[in-house]
């Protein structure tokens, strides 16, 4: 578990290079049967970066690219014993893969209702859930339109 006084990265946060994020997302998307653009949309909405640990009002932290909350560390460590907070903060591919795994769990927990699972990735509280689900959906649609426009050119 991470101590409440988790030290910030002294060198600042670093964005994931686009080609690295693309490879990591494609691998995780295939592994957990999630459309890659949805993972890109979640990463964009979350706004996480390498080295990022954002403290929340409740004393937990959101970690790395997919901003995985430390409240989930015991669950993650049970399924992935070699993955702790350091890997989630510093390894973007590990973070993206764990984010995809966590999203798949959330989708499966609601009987395969994809967008409900996406909302639950962030929160089961209706107002937070619905706002997040809408943000990810809108971001996904924009990314999809951009990709289609590039392919048409």
TrEMBL record:
<protein>
    <submittedName>
        <fullName>Soluble lytic murein transglycosylase-like protein</fullName>
    </submittedName>
</protein>
<dbReference type="InterPro" id="IPR008258">
    <property type="entry name" value="Transglycosylase_SLT_dom_1"/>
</dbReference>
<dbReference type="InterPro" id="IPR023346">
    <property type="entry name" value="Lysozyme-like_dom_sf"/>
</dbReference>
<dbReference type="Pfam" id="PF01464">
    <property type="entry name" value="SLT"/>
</dbReference>
<feature type="domain" description="Transglycosylase SLT">
    <location>
        <begin position="24"/>
        <end position="130"/>
    </location>
</feature>
